[in-house]
Design goal:
The complex is a heterodimer of chains A (about 260) and B (about 350). With about 260 residues, chain A is mainly alpha-helical. Chain A has twelve helices and no strands. The longest helix of chain A has about 30 residues. In chain B, the strands form three sheets. Chain B has a six-stranded mixed sheet, with helices on both faces. A four-stranded antiparallel sheet of chain B has the order 2-1-4-5. Chain B has a four-stranded antiparallel sheet with strand order 12-13-11-14, with helices on one face. The longest helix of chain B has 16 residues. The chains are: A mainly alpha (about 260), B alpha/beta (about 350).
């Protein structure tokens, strides 16, 4: 290595963020264990549902195949929550101050957070899908379908991490960041098609899922499992994610700029 | 050593004001001071007097409400990126990365300052030696005691050899030995042209370490100058005499050359401009009047007296946030933000 070699700043910042996950593997494991357990539990509980003609008519091979996308998204929700917690930890420890007064361009600090989240979330989505497939989940769209699910799930995770970071930067309180994050996590999952196919949901809930970006990603995954890729569905999901990001990313960036 | 903009002072603060939303009185209410190159300047004051706010404005972490602050000739609010290239900062609450080892923390700080990779590790190792961190170099920072964390944070602030160094309560939580080492280190840095702005609650340290000090109270500088000048301005020191007939002795000494005041009591307090010089003449005078002094104590003025005079109370050092003892056991680190 030559004596004037320097790591790019973005790489320095990202690697530091990932180091946290690598050196405290429990953080990653916890975001995985819960969805994995639910995968086992609910695929048993709702096994009967998969046998009904209504459910069969929708094209799913098993409840497990139908349920897997919801659990991949749940794992993204947990990791998004941790992203805000990591920001809070940097604020509390004084590390953020140190980064802010280093000769580092500010947007890079947030970008590094996003890149680290993408790395963690991708690993988690892949691991969950591997667990699901090992348990017997099958996608009609095949492995390209899994890739599409991972891409959409991670994109949603990053957008949702911006919500969690927004809470951290505005409250500057780690308890609030955690409690508010958890407060939002389960409703996002329950007010989606994660547990029951859309046609089986009551009308009002169908309307609510239309306003829930997580539900678009879950529906896309479920469609990939049941009938294969649908470009219209992909496009709707893309728009839902773009709108979510367009709302929250600027708010988070403003909150970050206001922090110094 | 980074080059400052012009040949001007290292820090120039004029009419600086900072108000926080929701509080009536501003935290900093119009202060001005200048710090020269190679000068160690101490900001002293009771809790909440505006020391930390001033430092945070200077290191570009806060924006002032009014006034200007220049570091190395650059405006801290309009030329923040230029200022950031010049400064090193160790805050009141240590900012180290818990997930990295001591050695990694130092090298990482160097790399963030765009110091080449290999050189970063070399500097990390050098500072580990200087700050006596060798035994814990491979340990994660989360396992360090309060004193060791503080030392790591101080080493971190120095790794890029900044031209201007800001240390907010740097000795809080340090053992006496580490304090002594830190002051020696700062002296050496200042001799090499580094300017240092530090805040402290330990007056005897400020007295020994600082070239000049300013005492802040309620966001204003109440007095500033060299420690010697400030002590002299209190009216000098005292002679504490044990002698019979303290009232008659007091009246004899009133108006005696070099004596600025007397206060009779169990021990007669004689205020002198220079107590050491007045000791013998005072005892001789009393002896010639038949008053035998049986014990005499010389009390030189301290910054405590200066503080007492301008603030009305002695400062109470803040309880260390992290453990005060240095050792190999880990203590919880309840870290809170300054407000």
């Amino acid at each position: 290595m030559s004596d004037d070699f320097r790591l790019p700043v973005i790489q320095l910042l990202t690697v530091r963020n990932i180091t946290r996950s690598i050196r405290t593997p429990m953080l990653v494991a916890i975001s995985l264990i819960q969805p994995a357990l639910w995968l086992v539990l609910f695929s048993q509980i709702f096994r009967g549902l998969a046998g009904t003609t209504q459910f069969r008519a929708l094209g799913y091979g098993s409840y497990l195949s139908f349920f897997l996308p919801g659990m991949v998204v749940l794992s993204m929700l947990f990791t998004a929550l941790q992203s805000g917690m990591a920001m809070m930890s940097d604020i509390d420890s004084g590390m953020l101050d140190k980064l802010l007064i280093a000769p580092v361009r500010r947007p890079l600090i947030l970008l590094a957070r996003v890149l680290a989240d993408v790395a963690t979330m991708t690993a988690q989505a892949v691991i969950l899908i591997v667990i699901g497939v090992a348990m017997g989940a099958r996608f009609r769209a095949g492995w390209p379908g899994f890739i599409v699910l991972v891409v959409f799930a991670v994109a949603f995770g990053v957008a949702w991490a911006s919500v969690s970071n927004l809470i951290a930067l505005r409250t500057r309180n780690s308890e609030l960041t955690m409690v508010l994050g958890f407060f939002l996590t389960l409703p996002v999952l329950f007010l989606s098609t994660a547990f029951f196919p859309k046609p089986l949901l009551p009308g009002w809930l169908q309307a609510v899922t239309a306003a829930n970006p997580a539900s678009y990603v879950i529906e896309t995954g479920q469609r990939l499992a049941a009938t294969g890729n649908g470009w219209g569905q992909d496009l709707r999901t893309l728009v839902a994610l773009a709108v979510t990001a367009a709302v929250f990313v600027p708010l988070t960036m403003t909150a970050f700029r206001a922090s110094a | 050593m980074l080059i400052l903009a012009k040949d001007g002072p290292a820090i120039e603060v004029s009419d600086l004001v900072k108000g926080y939303r929701g509080s009536r009185a501003p935290a900093v209410a119009g202060i001005s001071f200048t710090i020269g190159r190679g000068e160690i300047f101490g900001l002293l004051g009771p809790n909440g007097s505006g020391k930390t706010t001033t430092v945070r404005i200077l290191v570009t972490l806060l924006r002032q409400t009014a006034g200007t602050a220049l570091v190395g000739g650059f405006d801290t609010s309009r030329q923040a990126p230029r200022v950031r290239r010049l400064i090193g900062y160790a805050g009141q609450f240590t900012g180290v990365d818990d997930d990295l080892t001591v050695r990694e923390n130092l090298a990482y700080a160097a790399m963030l300052q765009r110091i080449p990779h290999n050189e970063s590790w070399r500097r990390a190792d050098a500072l580990i030696g200087e700050f006596a961190l060798a035994e814990v170099a491979g340990q994660r920072a989360s396992r360090l005691s309060g004193g060791l964390r503080r030392r790591l944070d101080l080493a971190r602030a120095l790794i890029h050899r900044p031209a201007v160094l800001f240390l907010d309560e740097p000795t809080t939580g340090l053992d006496p030995q580490s304090r002594g080492a830190l002051w020696d280190r700062l002296r050496a840095l200042a001799a090499g042209g580094t300017s240092v702005l530090l805040t402290t609650q330990y007056l005897e340290e400020a007295d020994r370490a600082c070239d000049r000090i300013a005492i802040l109270d309620a966001g204003r500088i109440v007095v500033s100058g060299t420690p010697a000048d400030l002590k002299e301005a209190t009216g000098g020191g005292q002679l504490l005499l044990t002698a019979p007939d303290s009232n008659r002795a007091a009246s004899l000494l009133a108006g005696f050359p070099g004596v600025t005041g007397v206060q009779p009591g169990d021990r007669l307090a004689v205020f002198c401009r220079d107590p050491a010089a007045s000791l013998v003449p005072v005892i001789q005078l009393l002896g010639s009047e038949g008053i035998a002094v049986t014990a005499a104590e010389l009390a030189q003025p301290t910054l405590d007296d200066v503080f007492l005079r301008y603030i009305g109370s002695r400062p109470r050092p803040e309880a260390p946030v992290t453990g005060a003892v240095s050792g190999t056991f880990a203590v919880g680190h309840g870290r809170r933000r300054a407000s």
